Amino acid sequence: MDRLDGPPRLILVTDLDCTLVDHDDPENTDLLRFNALWEAHYRHDSLLVYSTGRSMRSYLSLRNKKPLLTPDIAITSVGSEIAYGGEESMVSDDVWVARMGEMWNREIVLEETSKFPELEPQPVKSQEEHKVSFFVGREHAVEIMKVLPGRLLERGVDVKLVYSNDYAFDVLPKGSGKGGALTYLLEKLESEGKQPCNILVCGDSGNDAELFNIPQAYGVMVSNSHKELLQWHEENAKDNPKIILASERCGAGMIEALQRFNLGPSVSPRDVLDTENFHVEVLDPAHEVVQFYLLYEKWRRGEVEKSDKYLQNLKSLSSPLGMFVHPSGVEKLIHEWIDDLDNLHGEEGKEKQFRVWLDRVSSSLISPETWIVKFDKHELSVLFVLGCIQMEKYGHVRRESY
Ligand code: GLC
Ligand code: MG
């Protein structure tokens, strides 16, 4: 949260499975569209928050499989854990951990829940200190929800029960849940004088319902939302004009919400890339670097013919003095680097699976004529059955003469 000096323009809070991540799309089309939009137009002044039912471990393993950007904040285990920053510098919120421990006792939860034979424990990897999870059908879940909280309260344990997808039943400390964690984060931001201008929450199933209860928030239920969320909406939030059901699935539905609520740019650079004609009206370094790599991707995939005009086009995006600084420290003129692309053209669609996405793009003006743009570049290529995600950190210096 300290990355931004002032209040975020937007705080976008999204569930992962079946919201940002479409498991039915092996190409990750909408996720990649969202990524390019976020890095080009939002990263510099907004906050990205993932809010998932997955444990931290399981979330990190998803990140190894899917092209997920680095969020500013990761809320995991259905709101019972909060961590800030990227993997290499992730810091857990100890105040939140302490709060989760109030009126909570895992042993007592295990003892009382064991009295319901219908509750089938989820695998050990889905159990956490402040989350005890089961599988159970809806009818039984409804009955258990009526009696379990009272029984636990008699023993000094105050819980929140969350039921999702017609099978997942989570027992959590009272103040947690995705809504509890977001409320806590918003209070924290406010106490730091960083109240966001806008909040957008995005979800698809039962454990997301609480997110749509945050009074100031805009909300989008993606078109593939589970009927339990739609029913919750019908019963609890039908008259709230700030909550919509998208007409599009997953990431596309999220982009649709940015547009419908007028929360900022809503056209992904992936949708408007003009390979013939690069055109920079107002210099926006983050946007330019994103576009630059999209054209590079098309070249590598063989989606544009092998013609010098595309390389010239790429050159037109950078000044002849622009430098690449590779993570190894090696520096090279951007124009020389582009010349080297000549033999990387993916003729005949040989590299059809090749994808590039940028993460954590940041830019700063270090002199009236010089920008430094820093970013992580990820590449996904599939060679036969072997898939790999490569990551490189670049400092991309662009010298611009006005
Ligand atoms: C995720 C978690 C699971 C939880 C479910 C619903 O799938 O892995 O433990 O029950 O979300 O919150
Ligand atoms: Mg989901």
TrEMBL record:
GO-annotated molecular function: magnesium ion binding; sucrose-phosphate phosphatase activity
Question: Per the UniProt record, which EC number(s) apply here?
Answer: 3.1.3.24
GO biological process terms, alphabetically, are:
sucrose biosynthetic process
Identify the domain of life.
Answer: Eukaryota
The record's listing under SUPFAM superfamilies reads:
HAD-like, NTF2-like
Under the heading InterPro entries, the entry gives: HAD-like_sf (IPR036412), HAD-SF_hydro_IIB (IPR006379), HAD_sf (IPR023214), NTF2-like_dom_sf (IPR032710), SPP-like_dom (IPR006380), SPP_C (IPR013679), Sucrose_Phosphatase (IPR051518), Sucrose_phosphatase_pln/cyn (IPR012847)
Domain Sucrose phosphatase-like span(s) in chain numbering: 9-262
Give the record's keywords alphabetically. Hydrolase, Magnesium
Q: Pfam families in the record, alphabetically?
A: S6PP, S6PP_C
Question: So what does this thing catalyse?
Answer: sucrose 6(F)-phosphate + H2O = sucrose + phosphate
Answer yes or no on keyword Magnesium. Answer: yes
Annotated Sucrose-phosphatase C-terminal domain ranges read: 285-382
Its needed co-factors are:
Mg(2+)
Pathway membership: Glycan biosynthesis; sucrose biosynthesis; sucrose from D-fructose 6-phosphate and UDP-alpha-D-glucose: step 2/2
Q: Does the keyword Hydrolase apply?
A: yes
Q: What does this protein do?
A: Catalyzes the final step of sucrose synthesis.
Assembly: Homodimer.
Q: Which family does it belong to?
A: Belongs to the sucrose phosphatase family.
**The protein's name:** Sucrose-phosphatase
The species this protein belongs to is Raphanus sativus
Gene for this chain:
LOC108857233
